[in-house]
Specification:
single chain; 354 residues; mainly alpha; 70% helix; 0% strand
Length: 354
Amino acid sequence: MNTGIKRYLDFESVTILKGLAILIIVVHNFCIHLPFTPEENEFTFHISGNTALYNQIISPDRYLLLDILAYFGHYFVALFVFISGYGLVRKYEQKEKNIGLFEFIKAHYIKLAILLLPTLLVFFIVMSAIDAGYFQSNILELGLMALFVDNLYFGGGHILGPWWFFSMIMQLYVVYRLFAYKRSLKPIILLTILCLLLQIITIPGIGHNYRLPFIRQNFPGYILPFLLGIIFARNGYLPTAKIAAISTILFLLSCLNVYTWLLSFAFFPIIIIPLVKPLRKFPAVAKILRWLGMMSAYIFVIHPVIREIFLSSPTSIWAGMPYIILTIYTLLSLAAALPVKRITIIIKNRITKQ
C-alpha cells in the first residue's frame, strides 16, 4: 500500500469531505420517509430495497434522484466514521506524550456531551410539555443517551433516530484507545474480523430478528471503515482515481448480496475521497462545502429536530411536493445550526475556564 511517498488529507480536504457528507446525510434522512423511495440497507439487508431501486432506474421518473439519495445516502455515515479513524491517528499518534484511557474517554465524552445534550434536553422538555406521557416513556432513554450508552440498550429508541450515531462513535473512540492507540494494527484487525463474523452468523433469519440491527447500531457495524481510516492515516495512503473506479464496481456488486453487503461500507469512502481534488477546482462549490464541513457537527445535531417538525405534519403535505419541502427543510436545518454552534461554543468556553 505504501509506495514510499506518503500523502495525507489536509485540513481543507477533510472539511470538504465533511461538508459533502453532512449535506447528503441531512437530505437522505428526509428522503427515507418519503412513501415512494426504496428501503435502505443500513442496519439490515432488504432485497426488496434493491429490487425497488432497480425498477426505478430502468423506469425512471422525476423522483429518481430522491430514490438514489434514500438508498445510498446512509453510506456517508461510513465516510464520517472513516474520517474519525483517520483524524484520531493524525491527532494523537504524532505526539510523544501518551494520553491515558480515562483522560481520553473524558475528553471525547465532554466533546460529544457539549454538542448533543443542550439540544436533547430542550427537545425533551418541550415534548414533555406537549405530551403528558412523553416524560415517563422516554426518561430512561434520556439518561442512556446522556451517557452515550443508549445503543447498548436493546429496547432503546434514541428519542430522535439519527442521534444513534453519538453512542456508536463514542464506542469507536474507546475501541481506538484500547485496541489501536500507539499499538500495532493486529489487535484492531482481529477485533474487526470478530465483528464481521458476529454479523455473518446473525444474518440467517434476517427477516425475523432484531439482532443484526442492534449489532450494527453499535461499534461492530461501523468498525470496518473506522479501521480503514486508521490504516490510511498510518501509511500516508490516499486512493487514486483508478482505485476509486475499481472500488465503485466492487461497491455496487457488494450491495447485491447480504454477506458482501457488509463490505460495502469499506468500499464507499475509497470512492469518495478522490473527489476532493476536482471539487477544490470549483471555488464556489469548495467554499460552500468548507462552510458545511465547519458546521457539520451542529447541523447533524439539530437536523433531526427540524425533520421531526416536518414529519409531524400530514404526509400529503410534505410528500406531495418533495423537492420544495426538502429544500426548505435543508435550509432550515442549516440556519438552525447557527444558534446551536453559538450555544455550544459558549458552553465549551465556560467549561474550559473552570
